[in-house]
Fold this protein.
Amino acid sequence: MLRSCTAGLRSLWALRGRREGAARLSADLQPARRLFSTEKAVHKDWALPNPSWSKDLKLLFDQFMKKCEDGSWERLPSCKHTCTYKSEDFKTYFLDPQLVEGEGLSQAQLFTRGFEDGLGFEYVIFNNNDEKRTVCLFQGGPYLQGIPGFLHGGAIATMIDVAFGSCAAISGGAVMTANLNINFKRPVPLCSVVVIHSQLDKLEGRKLFVSCNVRSVDEKTLYSEATGLFIKLDPKKSST
Ligand SMILES: CC/C=C\C/C=C\C/C=C\CCCCCCCC(=O)SCCNC(=O)CCNC(=O)[C@H](O)C(C)(C)COP(=O)(O)OP(=O)(O)OC[C@H]1O[C@@H](n2cnc3c(N)ncnc32)[C@H](O)[C@@H]1OP(=O)(O)O
């Protein structure tokens, strides 16, 4: 395993410095929920294959794209900049105009999309609206190392939060994480692909209860299990 990881790392390093390919523009924003596509301008969609994606990730991606054909599943586009802060939904809650328009936020980008291709978080999320569940295909790159050769627990927690956040936001709109509980059962090898199956378990007023498991591609290894609580933001309250 170490050898294949080293080979994986080498090819990822080779990718460093490579210029971004043609913009992966979202051709299929579809219904994909207003929260995920509020931008007026067309921005690059990061939830599409790039050369750093492993065979496993590409294969799973293709399988889920097939499932999208009958409309039961949809791929959620993902942009790096502005989605959240330019979103009218979020401006409603972050009322301080200095915070929204300030210098710092002009450089803001989604934490998980801040790495060069293949070095950090490579992922795509698919949503099944009828079943209130999402599947996140995630390949964690070499910059996410914790214990040598394995993913940092914080990186796993981050991806779980993103997967949960997307799952909850589809039903709840503008939501925030109030609670995350994670059981790390097995370490995740660096550069491997894992599948995060999330579901909305219960909607209770403004509270959305979600749960997930993180498994290997062959589903034989259960890496983590988690539950989360998301709160639908109250338009009458300022979050800052
Ligand atoms: C999340 C994505 C959203 C939209 C997607 C948009 C674009 C898509 C693009 C990318 C997707 C990326 C997803 C990224 C996901 C990342 C998510 C985050 O990291 S959020 C940041 C971390 N979280 C925070 O900073 C939240 C800090 N906390 C707060 O701001 C507030 O506590 C709150 C959560 C907003 C709740 O405050 P409220 O004043 O609105 O509600 P409360 O009256 O306090 O509570 C309501 C209800 O809920 C219960 N409750 C609240 N917190 C907890 C808790 N920790 N544990 C258990 N229960 C809790 C509270 O008791 C109330 O219950 P009730 O009395 O029964 O009504």
